[in-house]
Amino acid sequence: MLRLFIALPLPSEVERKLGQVIEALQPHGAGVKWAKPGNIHLTVKFLGDADESLVPMISEGLDRVVSRFGVIKAVIDQLGGFPNLKRPRVIWAGSSLGVSGAAKIAKQVDLAARQLGFAKEKRPFKAHLTLGRVRQGRSADDLAAHLDGYTMEPITMSLDRLVLFKSTLTPEGPIYDRLHESPLGQERFEG
């Protein structure tokens, strides 16, 4: 069994800039497990444990989905927390501009995954980039107070591919391996 998810990876320049945001937040978040900048991505659908034999069918489904969508242009300009900024469990960066394309892709990916027997997504799609997770039992009061007054420098980005990732959980953090990449906006012709 493989632990799988589908995501829009970030350009390396955007990963670097989000790494700088994390560095600025780290002194205020002692109880936070911060993401490695190279692991930050926009998750479209978490598939969970799946048989390796499904990888080719998932890949074909992603190729069909992306042929209907162009490159997504967006601006990362918000920081937030789940469930909220007063008592965050997850610290995230988000966009107020350009995420409607990602939501449309997420809907089509969910439909394609359901045809392969994966569960329907229960929650509405919320485009976000996880920067850190508050460790259980830890308070994030200092971080919440800092986030309340933090102004984020907008980061522009282009998302140009949908990727099927395998996630391997380790004590040092997750390791993500790309199993298949589907470039956005490229028609595929049989024959």
Compact summary:
By secondary structure, this protein is α+β, with helices and mostly antiparallel strands. It has helices spanning 12-25, 55-66, 100-115, 141-148; strands spanning 2-9, 32-34, 41-50, 72-82, 90-97, 129-134, 155-159, 161-168, 175-183. The strands form 2 sheets. It has a 5-stranded antiparallel sheet.
**Which second-level CATH architecture applies?**
Alpha-Beta Complex
Q: Number of domains in the coordinates?
A: 1
CATH superfamily: Cyclic phosphodiesterase
CA radius of gyration: 17 Å
- In N-to-C order, the SSE pattern is EHEEHEEHEHEEE
Please give the number of β-strands. 9
Order of strands side by side in the largest beta sheet? Answer: 2-6-5-4-7
Global shape: globular
CATH fold group: Cyclic Phosphodiesterase, Chain: A
The N- and C-terminal alpha carbons lie at a distance of: 33 Å
CATH class term: Alpha Beta
Largest sheet: 5 strands, antiparallel
Notes on the structure:
- The chain is α+β, with helices and mostly antiparallel strands.
- The protein contains 4 helices and 9 strands.
- The chain has a 5-stranded antiparallel β-sheet with strand order 2-6-5-4-7. The protein has a 4-stranded antiparallel β-sheet with strand order 3-1-8-9, covered by helices on one side.
- The radius of gyration is 17 Å and the shape is globular.
